[in-house]
Amino acid sequence: MVASSETIRLEVPNGSKAVLLKNLYLSIDPYLRMRMNREENYFPSFQPEQVIEGDGVSIVLDSGHPNFKAGDYVRGFVGWEEYSLLTNTFHTDMLSKIKYTDVPLSYYTGLLGMPGMTAYAGFHEICSPKKGEYVYVSAASGAVGQLVGQYAKLMGCYVVGSAGSNEKVHLLKTKFGLDAAFNYKEEPDLTAALKRYFPEGIDIYFENVGGEMLDAVLPNMRMNGRVAVCGMISQYNLQKPQGVHNLPCLITKCIRMQGFLVFQHRHLHEEFIETTRRYFKEGKIAYVEDVVEGLHNAPAALIGLFSGRNVGKQVVMVAHE
Question: Which SUPFAM superfamilies does this UniProt record tie to the protein (predicted)?
Fold first, then answer.
């Protein structure tokens, strides 16, 4: 008996403004874990049997939307699936054409994507940096941290980063050009470690970790310091988040601590793309990504973020370009 084969034609419904995508790369980001909680955050929580969605890079196969045509490379919110049909305005509004293809398309999940934009907006707008200031970046080899440290160096700041392995520390000092770096897992006293690296105190702390790290930073901040709260990855898997005991430092040191969402800074998007792409092409910014192949490896890649298994920006390649 010979099995029959059937060709299925993928196309958008007639008369709709839907966009049909073939997904190429998926961005693996810590905030996805927060969407698995029952409490809604800035995005609705994932529901049982719902396809997980996140940032991705795709090629348009068919479109009824006036802004997109077959063959366009795009980035936006897509499902963890081989093909995505975007039918609602939220998803099509979040979709944008990829203007430059002289860099790897996977970079639009990181360097020129949401993490890069987060680093650019968070550092330049939330931190209000000045030349010569002292900057500390936690999770400094990750998708956001690696770019924050380099933006700070380009501004003429003194920059120290921390990471969870000696391999990553070496990367911070050699490839990313930070002034110093340390493995926080080898430090018995984080407060003392930060005092060692910042004897004059910290002007800017770019927060990616939370918990004990934030508690250690606050006493080491200088007067009128700024803390940009981008993420708190150490807290996402805890049933009860850790308390922070040194909050009175916000008063005594006149520290401004501010959380932010990248979507609030869309006015910077074109500036971010043009500036960051130029820096990369000129060799002023380095970038490291950790690519795993196959949609089936996406869950393990997400879990690996929370143990620091990845080196650089974690990406899943769904299909070859």
Answer: GroES-like (SSF50129), NAD(P)-binding Rossmann-fold domains (SSF51735)
